[in-house]
Specification:
With 702 residues, this protein is an alpha/beta fold. The chain contains 26 helices and 30 strands. Helix 9 packs parallel to helix 14. Pfam families: Molybdop_Fe4S4 (PF04879), Molybdopterin (PF00384), Molydop_binding (PF01568). One of its GO terms (molecular function) is molybdopterin cofactor binding.
C-alpha cells in the first residue's frame, strides 16, 4: 500500500481554500482518501478550511452518486451505453427543433458550472450548436444585477470591483454574510480572521441585514433594514454624501455624476427612512462615518441583488464607493488582475437584444431570466419550449415558484440532464449523463480568481484516477456536439482539452510570457500550494471596456428606475416579509446528501421574531403553515431575536421530499423548499432577476 499527499483547492464554494489530501493506493490498485485538511502552506487561505471541504470524500464515496448514463423508462431507470446516449440526444433534440424551431429547446445551467472548469470551457461547444434564445442559468436568481451594473458602468459584466478587505478601515456590508458564505463575488478564504484583523487595526465593520447574521454578530454596528428596501437606505446615504459636501475627488474618468446628484436630490434620509425602517439620523451618520474613514468600501451581495430593486442597489453601491474616492483605491473597491483574464479576452457582453416570448423579460449576455422558464414551457404558441437541457442544476429547488416548474417539466417532450444525481429536477429527465467526480479531474478557477481579494492562481491536479468507462464533463460535451453535428450537418470548430486552454490563457495573460513572471501551466505546476501574485492594485481606468473609456455614473436605465422606487407604496403595517438564509455547511441544494454536513440540529426551520409569534398565537417549535401568492408549505417555526420584527427567514435548497428523488440522506430530512413560496412574478424590473427577498407571506398554525 502506497500513501500519497496531494495539494489542491476546494471547489465547493467561492473561497477556493487550499487543501492537503492524503490518499492510499491499495494492493488491488484502488484508491481511498485517508484525510482532508487545510493547507497551511497556501498563502491565500493560510490553512483555513470549512466543513464542506472535508465532505469532498463523501461526494466521492456516495452510493447515490450516478456512475454511468441512465435512461428513464416510465418510472424506472436503466443503464445505457455512452454512444447510444449521445445518439439519442442528437436524434431527439434535432427532431424537436426541426418540428418546432430552434427556440423549442431550452438550456439551464446551475451554480456548480462555475465551480468546474470543464463546464466553463466546453459546455458551449455543444449548447452553442442548439442556437436557442431560451438559455437560462442560476445567475438570474443570484447575481445578475452585479453583472448588469458593471456592464453599464464599466463596459464589461465581469469587471466587478472587489473589497480590498485586507487594507480597508471601514467595511459596510449589505445583504451579505461572508462568515456563512465564505465570501461571494468576493473570493475571500479565512474571512473571519480578515474581518477581525480589520477591527484590530482600528477599523470598523457595519452590517445591514434584516437578520442579525453570523457576520452581523461580530460587527461593530448592525442595522436592521426592511427587506427589499436597501435601495432606499443607499439612496439616503448617497444623498447625504452630496448634501453635506462629503464627496471626494477620484482619479478615474467619470461621466454623469452631476446627473446623479440632480436625480437623487429628493431621496433624502428622512423620506428614505420611512421606506427602509432605518432611522434618518442613523442613515446620515452612516454616510458621515463612511466618508470620514481614510479607506472605506461598500459591499452588497445576494440579499441586495435578489429583490425588486436589485440593480438599483448594485448601482448605488458602486456610486457610494465612487463619490467617496474609494473606487479603484487601495483599501476601497478594486478589480482583481487574474492570471487568466476573462475581461481582456472576452467581449463586454450585451443586454436586451431580445426578450422572452411570454412576459417580455430582457436577455443579458445571451441568457433570459430564469423566472420565465416555466411559463415558456407552459404557454402554448409558436416558440413554446418542448425540450430542456439542464447542466449541474436543480431549478425545482433553486428558482421561484418551483411547483410551477415541476408542472412544466412533466409536459416536456424530452429532457437531458448532465448531473451526478437523480434529484428534484433530474428525476423528470429522460436521460442523465454523469461526469467524473470532483477529485477525479483537474481544475482551474477561471471565475473565482477573477473575484479574489488578492491576485492568486493555482492549477489543481486530479487526486484520484479516472475510473474506466467514465467521462469528464468536457468530454461529454464534445461527444454530444459531435453526435449533434453529425445528425444536423452543423460545422464543428476544432477544440482542445481544458488544461491546454488554461495554458494559453496563462501564457498570453498579464503574468505570462511578456511579463517577469513567465507564467504557463508547466510553471504553475511547480507551485502545488498555489502562487500569490500580490495585493490588488488600482487598474480600473486602464481596463474600462466601454467606448467612452470613462466610468458611466448615470446609465439612463437606472436613472429612470428611480421613479419606480419613488412611486412604490410605502410598506404596509403588520405584513410579514420572507428572506433567505445561508449556512456554512450548505451550498444551495447540492450539499444535503452528506451526513457530516447535515448532522446535528436541523437548520431548515422558519425563523421568526418572538413578538410576531405572540401576535399570531404561535409558540417556538410549533408546526406552522406559510402561505404566499404562489403556494404554501408546512415547517417548524423557531423563535429568534436575530430577526427584525415583521421578517421571517427560511434557508434555500431544502424540499427533498419529492417522489422519485434518489438521495438517501437528503430525503431522510427533507425540510421544505422556500421556492415553493417565492414568486416568479416578483422581479427586479430592470434586470429580470428574481426577487427572492421581501416576499409577502402569512404564517398560521398548521
Amino acid at each position: 500500500m502506497t500513501r500519497t499527499l496531494h495539494h489542491r483547492a476546494c471547489h465547493l464554494c467561492e473561497a477556493i481554500c487550499g487543501l492537503t489530501i492524503e490518499t492510499e493506493r491499495l494492493d488491488d490498485g484502488s484508491q481511498r482518501i485517508l484525510s482532508i485538511k487545510g493547507d497551511a502552506e497556501d498563502s491565500f487561505s493560510r490553512g483555513h478550511i470549512c466543513p464542506k471541504a472535508v465532505a469532498l470524500q463523501d461526494i466521492q464515496n456516495d452510493p447515490d452518486r450516478l456512475r454511468q448514463p441512465m435512461r428513464r423508462i416510465g418510472d424506472t431507470w436503466q443503464p445505457i451505453a455512452w454512444d447510444e446516449a449521445f445518439e439519442l440526444v442528437a436524434e431527439r433534440l434535432a427532431d424537436i427543433q426541426a418540428r418546432h424551431g430552434k427556440n423549442a429547446v431550452a438550456v439551464y445551467q446551475g451554480n456548480p458550472s462555475v465551480h468546474n472548469y470543464g463546464l466553463m470551457t466546453h459546455s458551449n461547444y455543444f449548447l452553442g450548436l442548439l442556437r436557442t434564445r431560451n438559455r437560462y442559468s442560476a445567475t438570474s436568481v443570484d447575481q445578475l444585477p452585479h453583472h448588469l451594473v458593471s456592464h453599464l458602468m464599466y463596459g464589461h459584466g465581469l469587471l466587478i470591483p472587489i473589497p480590498d478587505i485586507d487594507h480597508t478601515d471601514f467595511m459596510l456590508i449589505l445583504g451579505g454574510n461572508p462568515l456563512a458564505s465564505n465570501g461571494s463575488i468576493m473570493t475571500v478564504p479565512d474571512v473571519e480572521k480578515r474581518l477581525k484583523a480589520l477591527k484590530a487595526r482600528g477599523g470598523k465593520l457595519v452590517v445591514v441585514d434584516p437578520r442579525r447574521s453570523e457576520t452581523a454578530a461580530i460587527a461593530d454596528q448592525h442595522l436592521f433594514v426592511r427587506p427589499g428596501q436597501d435601495a432606499a437606505l443607499l439612496l439616503g446615504v448617497l444623498n447625504t454624501l452630496f448634501a453635506e459636501g462629503l464627496a471626494r475627488a477620484t482619479h478615474l474618468p467619470v461621466s454623469g455624476l452631476d446627473e446623479v446628484r440632480a436625480a437623487i436630490a429628493d431621496f433624502n434620509a428622512e423620506s428614505m427612512s420611512r421606506r427602509c425602517g432605518v432611522p434618518a439620523e442613523d442613515i446620515r451618520q452612516l454616510a458621515r462615518d463612511f466618508a470620514a474613514a481614510e479607506r472605506a468600501v461598500c459591499y452588497g451581495r445576494m440579499g441586495v441583488s435578489t429583490q425588486a430593486f436589485g440593480t438599483l442597489c448594485q448601482w448605488l453601491v458602486q456610486l457610494i464607493n465612487l463619490v467617496t474616492g474609494n473606487l479603484d483605491r487601495e483599501g476601497g473597491a478594486l478589480c482583481t488582475q487574474p492570471a487568466v483574464d476573462l475581461v481582456s479576452s472576452t467581449s463586454g457582453g450585451h443586454f436586451e437584444r431580445w426578450r422572452s416570448r411570454v412576459s417580455g423579460l430582457p436577455e443579458y449576455a445571451g441568457e433570459l431570466p430564469v423566472a420565465a422558464l416555466a411559463e415558456e414551457m407552459l404557454v402554448p404558441g409558436e416558440g413554446q419550449v418542448r425540450a430542456l437541457v439542464t447542466v449541474a442544476g436543480n431549478p425545482v429547488l433553486s428558482t421561484p415558484n418551483g411547483r410551477q416548474l415541476e408542472q412544466a417539466l412533466e409536459g416536456l417532450e424530452f429532457m437531458l440532464s448532465i448531473d451526478l444525481y437523480i434529484n428534484e429536477t433530474t428525476r423528470h429527465a429522460d436521460l442523465i449523463l454523469p461526469p467524473t467526480a470532483p477529485l477525479e479531474h483537474d481544475h482551474y478557477d477561471t471565475s473565482f480568481n477573477l473575484f479574489a481579494v488578492r491576485n492568486v492562481t493555482r492549477f489543481n491536479e486530479a487526486v484520484l484516477d479516472k475510473p474506466d468507462g467514465v467521462l469528464h464533463d468536457w468530454e461529454i460535451f464534445v461527444a454530444l456536439a459531435q453526435a449533434f453535428a453529425a445528425r444536423t450537418g452543423a460545422e464543428l470548430k476544432p477544440t482542445m482539452p481544458p488544461e491546454q486552454m488554461i495554458d494559453l490563457g496563462l501564457r498570453f495573460g498579464p503574468y505570462g510570457e511578456r511579463s517577469e513572471h513567465k507564467l504557463s501551466l508547466a510553471a504553475l505546476r511547480e507551485h502545488p500550494h498555489g502562487l500569490d501574485l500580490g495585493p490588488l492594485r488600482p487598474n480600473l481606468a486602464g481596463r474600462l471596456k466601454n467606448p467612452e473609456q470613462a466610468v458611466q455614473a448615470a446609465p439612463a436605465l437606472l436613472l429612470a428606475d428611480l421613479q419606480r422606487l419613488a412611486a412604490q407604496p410605502e410598506p404596509e403595517a403588520g405584513e410579514l416579509l420572507l428572506i433567505g438564509r445561508r449556512h456554512v455547511r450548505s451550498n444551495n441544494s447540492w450539499m444535503h446528501n452528506y451526513h457530516r454536513l447535515v448532522k446535528g440540529k436541523p437548520r431548515h426551520q422558519l425563523l421568526m421574531n418572538p413578538e410576531d409569534l405572540t401576535r399570531r398565537g404561535l409558540v417556538d417549535g410549533q408546526r406552522v403553515r406559510v402561505r404566499s401568492r404562489v403556494g404554501e408549505i408546512e415547517v417548524e417555526v423557531a423563535a429568534s431575536d436575530e430577526m427584525m420584527p415583521g421578517v421571517v427567514s427560511m434557508p434555500h435548497g431544502w424540499g427533498h421530499g419529492r417522489p422519485g428523488v434518489r438521495m438517501t440522506i437528503a430525503s431522510a430530512q427533507p425540510g421544505a423548499s422556500v421556492n415553493d413560496l417565492t414568486d416568479e412574478r416578483r422581479l427586479d424590473a430592470v434586470s429580470g432577476n428574481a426577487a427572492l427577498n421581501g416576499v409577502p407571506v402569512e404564517v398560521e398554525a398548521a
